[in-house]
Amino acid sequence: MSAVSQVPAAASAEALSYFSRKLGFETDCRDVYDAFRTGAVDFVLLDVRGPALFATGHVPGALNLPHGKMTARRMTEWPAGTLFVVYCAGPHCNGANKAAIRLAELGLPVKEMIGGITGWHDEGLTLETGSIPAQ
After folding, report:
1. pLDDT at 111
2. Cβ atoms of 97 and 112 closer than 8 Å
3. Which of 16, 76, 88, 108 is the one with CA 20 to 30 A from 1?
4. Nearest to 123, CA basis, from 133, 131, 113
């Protein structure tokens, strides 16, 4: 028996519930790219890395807002109910998780763009460079 099948797979109904719920917490780089490409952007994309890293390369259309600057007052700059999508450097970075926690604590809808900058590169997508002021 392989290590893969040593622990039985969850029942189909449980798997359906788990994977369906997971999509409520995350989106991927290609979906974000397609939203910007088609003009169907119904979220605010936040790069939560520091300004210096943001300037070296960020997802086109992203605003730079590190999680430490996500205050209740600051977030009122967007209409109530705005969906925020957060990302950081990649799977080795927990900045997006910290930002998602902060936004959720503020009662705001949030998803993580899984993969971050690493995932964006893995999809063959290009980054913008230069500083763009935070919203």
Report:
1. 98
2. yes
3. 16
4. 113
